[in-house]
Structures are given as structure tokens and as C-alpha cells.
Amino acid sequence: MAQCISTSVEKGHQRRSSIGRRRFSATLKEYRGRFYILRRCLVMLLCWHEYE
């Protein structure tokens, strides 16, 4: 009986940690996208005189 309960607790923990990993991955992907856009804007602002 105790083994059955600990197994279900471990599965619940694994499920929560995989959800947390997915959430972290999605957040990281969003920040990488924002950083890419910011970097492109900065390059355009700094180098605009080269393209006129």
C-alpha cells in the first residue's frame, strides 16, 4: 500500500516538473524573441547613417 502511494506521488511530481519545464521553455523562447527584436532595432538605430 505504501509503495502504491509513493508511486502516485512521484508521478504527480514528475507531471508538475514537466509542466514547469514547458512553462520555463516557453518563457525562455519568448525572451529570446524579444531580445532578437531589440537587438535588430538597436543595430538599425546605430547603423542608419550607413544606409542613407
From TrEMBL:
Keywords for the protein's UniProt record, in alphabetical order: Cell membrane, Developmental protein, Membrane, Transmembrane, Transmembrane helix
Membrane topology: Single-pass membrane protein
Protein name, per record: Uncharacterized protein
Family: Belongs to the DVL/RTFL small polypeptides family.
UniProt key word Transmembrane helix: yes
GO cellular component: plasma membrane
Main location: membrane
Entry's localization field: Cell membrane
Gene Ontology biological process: negative regulation of cell population proliferation; shoot system development
